[in-house]
Automatic annotation (TrEMBL):
Domain annotation Mycothiol-dependent maleylpyruvate isomerase metal-binding: ranges: 8-94
TM ranges: none
GO MF terms, alphabetically ordered: isomerase activity
Official protein name in the record: Maleylpyruvate isomerase family mycothiol-dependent enzyme
InterPro entries found in the cross-reference section: DinB/YfiT-like, Maleyloyr_isom, MDMPI_metal-binding
Entry keyword set: Isomerase
């Protein structure tokens, strides 16, 4: 399956996940800042379903601060019923949206990371696909993950994820599941507890940067 096919399938899987959650779970705070689970879903939907005009208007009202505009757009989208959000994800599963700079690998990684932003606080198994995890891990350490990982975070460390047969880098060792490494590289400190090796302390010290 090519990357666009992976993205489409991840959107459909996200739709299935959304439909399985109750109201309390949707209100739970995610691992993505102050966003609730439902607001994370709203963010994923807005990337493919929000009109360009509404996105541009919010960007202007946010003083051209992309982070603030994205947060407002996600909150607006999250007002919709969960079932409607799931339907929109399925309807736009094969949308050709390609973010600048990070491209399709960035879109795939965004879906996988945000999926875990939802599942981890709810205690749900991730069931991520090894091929897709490897693609995201390669992207995160490849130097083009602008907005995902500061370049200095993985530099000079050795990462090993035996469960997905993936490794990268030289230096003190950081070892764990591919999911835990992906989440840590993208700044989710909770995943540090799932890692081992003499490089974990150094990685923990870089998490604030």
């Amino acid at each position: 399956m090519d990357v666009r096919g992976m993205i489409a399938d991840e959107r459909r899987r996200m739709a299935d996940l959304v439909e399985s959650l109750n109201a309390e779970q949707l209100r739970t705070r995610s691992l993505c800042g102050a966003w609730t689970v439902k607001e994370v879903v709203g963010h994923l939907v807005s990337a493919v379903a929000a009109s360009r005009a509404s996105a541009l208007l919010l960007l202007v009202r946010s003083g051209f601060n992309l982070h603030k505009a994205n947060a407002r757009l996600a909150a607006q989208m999250a007002v919709r019923p969960a079932g409607e959000l799931a339907d929109m994800l399925r309807a736009h599963a094969e949308h050709p949206f390609r973010p600048p700079v990070v491209g399709y690998p960035g879109q795939l990684t965004d879906l996988q990371v945000h999926g875990q932003d939802i599942r981890r606080p709810l205690g749900l198994a991730h069931d991520l696909q090894p091929e897709r995890l490897r693609a995201s891990l390669d992207f995160l350490v490849g130097g083009r993950a602008v907005g995902f990982v500061p370049k200095q975070r993985p530099a000079g460390l050795r990462f090993e994820a035996p469960d997905v047969a993936w490794s990268w880098g030289d230096g003190p060792l950081v070892r764990g599941t591919g999911e835990a490494i992906m989440m840590t590289l993208t700044g989710r400190r909770v995943a540090l507890a799932d890692l081992s090796g003499d490089g974990v302390a150094e990685l923990r010290g870089r998490m604030g940067r």
